[in-house]
Amino acid sequence: MSTENGGPATLRKLGRVERKAVNLGGGEAAVRTGEVRPGETLPLVVTPRNGGMSLNAWAAANLEWIEGKLLEHGAVLFRGWDVGGLDGFREFVTSTGGSPEKYTYRSTPRTEVGNGIYTSTEYPADKFIPMHNEHSYSRSWPLRLFFFGEQPSPEGGMTPIADSARVYAEIPAEIREKFERKRVMYVRNYGEGVDLPWEEVFGTSNRAEVESFCAAEGIEVEWKEGGRLRTRQVCQAIARHPATGRTLWFNQAHLFHVSSLEAEVAEALVEAFGDDGVPRNTFYGDGEPIEPEALAAIRAAYDRVESAFPWEKDDVVMIDNMAVAHARTPFRGERKIRAAMTQPVHADDLVQP
């Protein structure tokens, strides 16, 4: 992927920001909207006409406008505002998205820095995190994501994004149709010392609480010797957006699949534990292995539609988590990107494609 190292190919894609003025609130809340490159509407860039403008003061007076732009574009980048630090970011999240949700049934390590605000995924800096919609490996997920550039890394560390409807359209029809028909099975094994322990994933060391959560979410539980746990869950591959009705590619089949690991690591894990014993893996919903060429086509579709931008200090990004997927490029130096999730959605509440 061209953005993997934040190199010249990605930077050439950025182009210049094309801006136009939008006068709201008699001039007090005047902003400029723009694009990360000509003709690219994702994300919409919103900057204040006057320097030093408070993002929270402006947002409080323009919630309907923000809602409309997020629905239209799927992601909005607020740049050049007085955010007010982490407390100001939390205020913005609450006023525009509602109360932050706890990060439960997690797939990656994160640390809560206070009141529903988390570190971004704590994954090795030299590794690329593939495209994904947050929590699309489950049947419950946040509709909104927020990111705050408290301290961008000096090199790399971008957050590429991709339109989920465009990804769906880019995947060959025969692959889409098979996934839609069979859905995706996620198999996770905890306790081998090579992934998150189940106590961290479920936020409890009480087996009864784990079983209760899994029963409510349709997750099959299998306790194994030595305190190990295996879970299986069949989830959606395709989803329909509750507001726009657009059909979306909405799963993490390619990310959870063992082939997402470096080849030597994947081979060693399969040899040691078998296909259904590795820390995490995906199959079609009936247990059939997913073809390597299907996974390659999915990854290529994300590559073709992604858009990337370099972080600037105090950037705030607001994302419709169903409409837009996100990733992370490798980086060097200290990087503090904070994250929050709001507006929980359950698959059972949606109109199925």
UniProtKB/TrEMBL annotation:
The UniProt record lists the TauD/TfdA-like domain at 52-340
This chain's source organism reads Longimicrobium terrae
Q: Which Pfam families match?
A: TauD (PF02668)
Q: Which InterPro entries match?
A: AlphaKG_dependent_hydroxylases (IPR050411), TauD-like_sf (IPR042098), TauD/TfdA-like (IPR003819)
Keywords assigned by UniProt, alphabetized: Antibiotic biosynthesis, Dioxygenase, Oxidoreductase
Gene3D superfamilies linked to this entry:
Clavaminate synthase-like
Q: Which cofactor does it need?
A: Fe(2+)
Any GO BP annotation: antibiotic biosynthetic process
Q: Which protein are we looking at?
A: Alpha-ketoglutarate-dependent taurine dioxygenase
Family matches, as SUPFAM superfamilies: Clavaminate synthase-like
